[in-house]
Specification:
Function: Part of the outer membrane protein assembly complex, which is involved in assembly and insertion of beta-barrel proteins into the outer membrane.
Largest sheet: 16 strands, antiparallel
Pfam families: Omp85, POTRA
CATH class of the largest domain: Mainly Beta
Distance between the termini: 59 Å
Shape: globular
Radius of gyration: 36 Å
GO biological process, one term: Gram-negative-bacterium-type cell outer membrane assembly
Number of domains: 6
CATH superfamily of the largest domain: membrane protein fhac: a member of the omp85/tpsb transporter family
Subcellular location: Cell outer membrane; Membrane
Structural class: alpha+beta
Family: Belongs to the BamA family.
Length: 781
């Protein structure tokens, strides 16, 4: 748009010209309120245009030849022409009976070129700028695009980027726009400080937020970027942290970053006010709906008198009460908590009021900020659609689901008045973040055939093509092993909240006396039952190919051999190819606060694997595992996890169990013993066991001295397990109790949770194979 002063001069000049030439032409112009028109345009003359044709410009003026017009019409004509964004200057004057429209056209953008950019790709920068090829040029647009490019670099930690625009004419009113970019050094975060915190140390609070101090591994994590959107998300994380731990008066006074230009490093400071810590006082329900008895609904409430105040527990109580009341037919009922603070006793009594509520409907759902993620990926997380009854509970639940996707830095849901009093517009604002990962991991594992150095490379995308799909390609191996895997998951199969996916895998391993190669695939489905409980079903078909090394089987029925192997192992290996066709059924219960950094909650999983629907193997295998997480000390971030589990396997249909169908020891059963180093033994070989039970207790804590941004934690633990049972006769079952204690170091690394353990067996058998030191990568669950 034209500057106001320039616009005013153009309109004034047009009015003045009309006033002066009027007497000469004999047309009397009356500017009183009673005058309807001031002149008649016998013809309209368009000048200065090169690309826009005359008739298009005349149409924009709204004045036609032979039409009467006045100063107001001239004013609107000028506004309309400026409003097209096609012209840098506009003048409308009368000369005799001719209305003269003079315009100066903006140049057309021929090409947009980026030079010097390496850390940000051309496509990324082109998506950020407004001036595009075949569009019109404006200086204001150019200035905005320079800032947009700077913002792109700021989000990847290069705040000192220099952007110099150049405009080059190529003829015929066309120009090239060239952005010369000096990317500069990567901006780092030197310190993150908190002002006003007394209950929790800076170290503990730094663990809560996603922004981290720069360290030697920042090039892997990329979490040391100063970004305003991330800072807002960190503020919300701090609020939740305090609100869920009794600090109902918590406030963030300010959060900002100060750049040290000399060092190119930020000092990030959060100034907070913790307030007092409260416990829940009296809990009651007040219902104004005649058929809804508040006393009967108290069982739905999570908040309990005497517990520390928790906003999350209040939210969960509201959800549970709303669902219960809606189930009784009151879909518009509203549940609102009312807190009554007792400052002296530091308690908050909560009254949940249940009212019928106004009949309000969702007119429209607007999604904003999703440049990459498709609208439907966001919409489907809400159990609401246009025309549905508005329900704040469903809105909050949808917001939680969006946050759990880990696609966004922040999610905010608000409402505005719709076109009618009973209509509301839901506005969902999101700030996207990177969802792709390329990782290179290395390690040294001990125990089993895969012991020794190993490496793994993987490419993962959690929001494939913005469709919310998960895809992962991985490959790796060690000195005597190779493995490859492709995984894909569609979280909303056939538009339903049912996940569907597949895995294709191939692995080879050189054992001491024989080689194995496993090739197969899995098709799997997941169905949520409640917010915490889900069911899984899968089908796996795989082929295990065994090959003996430089030895022979002298009796195929008994497995007698010259390999120094147990006859039972030799019998199974001698078959060559084993085909396994198995169906898996599972149930998972999960209330853990964070899968990457668990501190509180329960996690349980039970699984039944049934093989024998075709193939060579016929067995059923039942496993169960439960974990309880609790934070022992808030300030020092001491976390406890207790684990119990067990399993049983047996054959069915008259078939025999193979040694490869049995359980074998691992660090998830008991530490301090080798992989497959305990249980039934024959000819010096551990065969595996039919049943096991185990339990462990572990306390983790931040590693002293090391920055918390590195993600290291220490651990002390105690494990106990009992294993036994064998389908083979004449072998030493070697069952009974084992126990160990130890210490460890955990690292939430970019290529998966990594743990190094040193365990000392306290109770063991003479034939057990001890392994005090272990190192491996794997899930906590």
């Amino acid at each position: 748009m034209m500057a106001p002063s320039k616009f005013t001069r153009a309109v004034s000049a047009a009015a003045l010209t009309v006033g002066l030439v009027g007497p000469v032409t004999g047309a009397a112009f009356l500017f009183s309120a009673d005058a309807a028109f001031a002149a008649t345009a016998s013809r309209i003359d368009v000048r200065g245009n090169q690309r826009v044709d005359d008739q298009t410009i005349i149409n924009y003026t709204g004045i036609r030849p032979g039409q009467n017009y006045g100063p107001a019409d001239v004013d609107e004509a000028v506004k309309s022409l400026y409003g097209t964004g096609l012209f840098s200057d506009v003048s409308v004057t009368q000369r005799g009976g001719t209305l003269v429209v003079e315009v100066s056209e903006y140049a057309t953008v021929n090409a947009v070129i980026f030079r010097g950019n390496k850390k940000a790709k051309d496509q990324q920068l082109a998506a950020a700028v407004q001036l595009q090829p075949r569009g019109t040029f404006s200086q204001a647009g150019l200035d905005q695009d320079v800032e947009a490019i700077r913002d792109v670099y700021s989000r990847i930690g290069r705040s000192d980027v220099s952007v110099t625009p150049q405009v080059s004419e190529v003829g015929n009113g066309r120009i090239n726009i060239i952005y010369d970019i000096q990317e500069g050094d990567r901006t780092k975060i030197d310190r993150i400080e908190f002002v006003g915190n007394n209950a929790y140390s800076d170290r503990r609070l730094r663990d809560v937020i996603s922004t981290k101090r720069s360290n030697i591994l920042s090039f892997l994590f990329r979490n040391d970027v100063y970004d305003q959107a991330r800072l807002r998300a960190d503020e919300e994380a701090l609020r939740r942290f305090y609100y869920n731990r009794g600090y109902a008066d918590f406030q963030i006074i300010s959060s900002d970053g100060v750049l040290n230009d000399a060092e190119n490093e930020y000092l990030v400071t959060f100034t907070i006010s913790e307030g007092e810590r409260y416990r829940f006082g009296d809990i009651s329900i007040d219902s104004t709906i005649p058929d809804v008895n508040g006393a009967d609904l108290l069982r739905e409430v999570d908040t309990e008198q005497g517990d520390y105040y928790s906003a999350l527990e209040v939210e969960n109580s509201i959800l549970a009460l709303s669902e219960s009341v809606a189930g009784q037919g009151y879909v518009f009922a509203q549940v609102n908590p009312r807190g009554d603070r007792d400052i002296a006793n530091r308690t908050i009594s909560v009254v949940y009021t249940i009212d019928e509520g106004p009949r309000t409907y969702v007119e429209r759902i607007e999604i904003r900020g999703n440049d990459r993620t498709r609208d439907y990926v966001i919409r489907r997380e809400f159990d609401l659609a246009e025309g549905d009854a508005f329900n704040q509970v469903l809105v909050q639940r949808g917001k939680r689901r969006l946050e759990a996707l880990k696609f966004f830095e922040s999610v905010n849901v608000s409402t505005t008045q719709g076109s009618q009093p009973d209509q509301v517009v839901m506005v969902v604002d999101v700030v996207e973040k990177s969802t792709g990962e390329f990782t290179i991991g290395g390690g040294y594992s001990t125990g089993g055939a895969n012991s020794g150095p190993s490496v793994e490379l993987s490419v993962t995308e959690r929001n494939f093509l913005g469709r919310g799909q998960f895809i992962r390609l991985a490959g790796g191996g060690g000195k005597k092993s190779r493995n490859y895997r492709i995984s894909f998951t569609e979280p909303y199969f056939l538009g339903r909240r049912i996940s569907a996916g597949f895995d294709l895998f191939r692995s080879t391993t050189d054992q001491k006396k024989y080689d194995t190669a496993t090739t197969g695939g899995t098709v799997r489905f997941g169905l949520p039952i409640t917010e915490a409980l889900s069911a899984q079903i899968g089908y796996t078909y795989k082929v295990d190919d065994y090959d003996l090394d430089d030895c022979t089987i002298t009796n195929s029925s008994t497995g007698a051999n010259t390999c120094g192997l147990s006859n039972f192992i030799a019998r199974d290996v001698s078959k060559g190819d084993w085909h396994t066709s198995a169906v898996t059924l599972g149930l998972t219960f999960n209330t853990v606060d964070s899968l990457s950094k668990p501190r509180e909650g329960l996690y349980g999983k039970t699984e039944l694997e049934l093989a024998g629907l075709g193939g060579d193997a016929s067995y059923y295998k039942l496993t169960a595992r439960g974990q309880y997480y609790a934070l022992l000390n808030q300030e020092y971030d001491l976390a406890f996890v207790g684990t119990v589990g067990g399993g049983y396997v047996d054959s069915w249909g008259g078939e025999d169990l193979r040694t490869f169908d049995l359980f074998r020891n691992s660090n998830k059963i008991i530490r301090g013993f080798e992989h497959n180093g305990i249980g039934p033994i024959d000819s010096g070989d551990h065969l595996g066991f039919q049943a096991y039970a185990h339990a462990s207790a572990e306390v983790t804590f931040p590693m002293p001295v090391l920055p918390e941004s590195l993600g290291f934690r220490g651990a002390v633990f105690s494990d106990v397990a009992t294993v036994g049972g064998t389908p083979f006769s004449g072998v030493d079952e070697s069952d009974g109790l084992r126990a160990s204690i130890g210490v460890g170091i955990q690292w939430d690394s970019p290529f998966g949770p990594l743990q190094v353990n040193y365990a000392e067996p306290l109770v063991k058998k003479d034939e057990d194979e001890v392994q005090r030191f272990s190192f491996g990568i794997g899930s906590k669950f």
